[in-house]
Amino acid sequence: MKQIAFTWLLCILSICAYAQQITVTGTVTDAENNPLIGAAVVVVGTTDGVITDFDGKYTIKAASGQSLNFSYVGYREQTVKVDGRSVINVKLSEGELLDEVVVIGYGTVKKSHLTGAVASVSGKELQANVARSASAALQGRVAGVTVSAANGQPGEGLNINVRGISSLSATSPLYVIDGVYGDINMVDPADIQSIEVLKDASAAIYGVRAANGVVLITTKRGKIGKATITVDAKWGSNSRGVPEYDVMRDPATYYTTYWRELKGMYEANGEANPGQLASNALITDSGSGLSYNVTTVGNNEVVLPDGTFNPNARIKYADNWEKEMFHSGLRQEYNVNMNGANEKTSYYLSFGYLDDEGYIVKSGFTRYSARLRLEHQFNKNIKMGGNFAYVNTSTVATSATEEQDQTAGTNMFYVSRTMAPIYPIYKRDENGNFMYDSHGRIVYDYGDTPGMQRPVSGNSNALGSQSLDDRKNGKDYFSGNMFAEISFLKDFKFTFRAGIENDNTRQMVFQNGEYGQFTAQNGIATHYSTRNMTCLHGNVLLESIR
Q: Which of 169, 180, 184, 513 could form a disulfide with 522 if both were Cys (CB 3.0 to 4.6 A apart)?
């Protein structure tokens, strides 16, 4: 009997020893030793728990034999046994992709629970790609999504197709920015938290407008902690990705090559002395003549009757159209943002500037952007917020991208590879010196000088048109949306959202009246201005299914 009583006493003492709690303190950090604010620390098997403060520190009571579970959004959970220790510091690593939360329709879900065809691109991935727009940043990053450009004009919007072209007319997907329809090209990539592409039935909740897929854009919000100011600067250059063809650049080679063509024509016609006839007809202003003589000898002496270039001829000038029209353009981008949050309020404010100079002379794109996102939790049931953005863009376009100017003579790509080296960009006097007008400006050669009518792309000069004409497009874009969330009956959440989008677009084209095809009209100027305003509102009721 005494032995039984002694055994029970030992058990009671063991239980009391196990249940005796100690105070545990420590710090929770990430892989770079930055404190994690608001990380959850819970005693395993109980409802006891705390969250870390602004320095990532915590204090909790637990028994020596119990374990602590550490968790933070976006990081892998970690469980540590107390084992009598009073100080436990924990370093959390970033979570696996299966725990990533993605946006679908009007809600979110963990990727591990996702069954639909949804592709997600994080803001870090977008920032790794130096792109002038969010659509450009998607290139090559999402399977089944094709991103293409109609031309290389800086600032030009890109075409996005989800799983191919599904219609002969409307092929673009629906863009939803923070719950409101918007323009993907008006979002600064630096402000994007993530992009989700809905490819299948996941997009059905948006109706017929989602027939070509849905692109959901979530912008950044404030992070819990002290106010953080981030400055980001990027510099680069724009140049042709594919070099020009290897074309004939030497006037002497061009003259002799063309002479052989003329001689062959005369021989085919049975003419006597075809070599001399070819030399006489090489540089004339009629028939098959080239019109321009850029040498120091007479027109019929440039190429001798035996087909050799006159050794006494000196080339006075030879303009390189490609080098004059294309160059390396400077690209510079600056972004500044300030963000912060506490238990109730979060804010994100950003300003951006992009100057993207094109590789065609006098072409480029400039963008100023600003964004403010503000959210406040009034109490455990009511949350309100707003997201406002303003974008101003200015584009200096080229004749090759304006529909009214798309002719062979003004298309720089066509001219650079087809214009013979004997035809100058600028007018020259008889000694080969540049000529200037009464304003002191260099005069472009439009191939319309009497006695020197250029047989190719006459009365035009692609570089002259680009330099003397103006083609400018501008846009002022404002978007704003506000929301209110009301949680009730534990499992229900009602969201009211209202938004407005205002788009003012301007286009100005001026074609000079001093030189070229519009001299008779003293020039032509056109100006277009459009304004589109869209107002949206929606109500969503969600039930959490446990």
A: 513
Three-state secondary-structure class, residue 111? helix
Please say whether the beta carbons of 462 and 411 come within 8 A. Answer: yes
Q: What is the pLDDT of residues 294-327, one digit of tens each?
A: 999 999 999 999 999 999 999 999 999 999 999 9
Task: Provide, rounded to the nearest whole percent, the portion of the chain with pLDDT above 90.
Answer: 41
Asked whether 370 and 353 are in contact (CB, 8 A), the reply is: no
CA–CA gap between residue 164 and residue 69 (Å, rounded): 46
Q: Do 43 and 64 contact (CB within 8 A), yes or no?
A: no
Residue keyed to tokens 């704003």: 480
Residue 404 in this model has a pLDDT that exceeds 60: no
537 and 513 Cβ atoms separated by less than 8 Å = no
Residue with tokens 């009602």: 494
The residue ranking higher by pLDDT, 440 or 137, is: 440
Task: Reply yes or no on whether the pLDDT at 214 is more than 50.
Answer: yes
Closest CA to 69 of 37, 39, 94: 39
User: What's the rounded Cα separation, in Å, for the pair 481 and 535?
Assistant: 10
SS3 call for 423: coil
8 Å CB contact between 347 and 373: yes
**Crossing angle of helices 274-281 and 251-268, rounded to 10°:** 130
Q: Cα(91)–Cα(70) distance, rounded to whole angstroms? A: 9
By the 8 A CB rule, do 481 and 178 touch?
A: yes
Q: What percent of the chain has pLDDT over 70?
A: 87
Contact 53, 19 (CB under 8 A): no
CB neighbourhood size of 94 (10 A): 13
**Helices and strands in the chain: count of H runs, count of E runs:** 8, 26
Tell me the CA end-to-end span of the chain in Å, nearest whole number.
Answer: 53
Cα–Cα distance, 331 to 233 (Å, whole number): 11
